[in-house]
Every structure is written in C-alpha cells, then in structure tokens.
Amino acid sequence: MSGAERPEGNEAAAAGDPGRSLGRSDASPDEGVVEDLPLIDEKAVEQLTEGLISHYLPDLQRSKSALQELTQNQVVLLETLEQEISKFKECNSIVDINALFSEAKHYHNKLVNIRNEMMMLHEKTSKLKKRALKLQQKRQKEELEREQQREKELEREKQLTAKPAKRT
Fold this sequence. Notes:
mainly alpha, two-stranded antiparallel sheet
C-alpha cells in the first residue's frame, strides 16, 4: 500500500519523509489515549465479559479435565514403568545369579575332576609302593639266598680242602 491508500488518513509527517503519511501506530503511545477511547458502559463490559466467559469456560473446563486425566494417566504410566524397570533389574540380577551358578557348577566339575585325579594318583602310588616293597623283599631274599649259597660254597670248599691227617 502506498501512503495514499492507507485507511488511517493522509497526514504528512512533520519532520520526516514528505511522501509518508502518519498512522495511529506512528503516534506517541501517550498521545490521544483518552480522546480515542469512547465512553464504555460498565453493564456492557460486564455482559461482554460474561458472554466471553460463558463461551470459552466450558471448553476450558473440558480442557482442564482432559489435562487432569492425562496427568493421572502419566502418573500411572510412570509407576508402571518404574515397576517394569525394577522387574528388568531383577531379571538382570537373576541372569547374574544364573551366571554365578553356572560358574560354580564349572568349578565344582573341576574340583570333582581334581579329586578323581588325586584318587587315581593315590591308587597308583599305593600300587607303586607295594611293588617297590615286593621288589625290595625279593632283592633281600635274593641277597640272602646268594649269601647262603656263598656260605654253602665256602663250607663245601672247606670240606673239600685237603686236611692233613692227624698222626696219632
């Protein structure tokens, strides 16, 4: 719009652009406030206020109740969510406990294997000890037999050696 087409009027600016007209928004905020306001009837203001309130109040009340319902639903959802989170934490704890049990089972199996191995080694050492004892006894018996054989041979040699006859 040009300055001539404005509905406010064609008042020339006093200290500015000669082609520009002044409108109500160009005036100082304090100028003409009292003169511009028509006389307002208090009853009309009250009726307009009541009409405005009666027009918007039901919608606002419905909105308020809807917001309260939404807030309550959010509280319920938050409580449910917290319960679900605690369930997940319990599930994680159960998973951790299951991991501990499986680890305990693994180490129990290791202990059983070690125990079986120790029992097997004990049996082997017992057998080796018995065998060593038998070998030692056999060796002692053989040594005793050799010693007895030597003594017999010495005795036989003594008997075979020529003895001078005794003169009487």
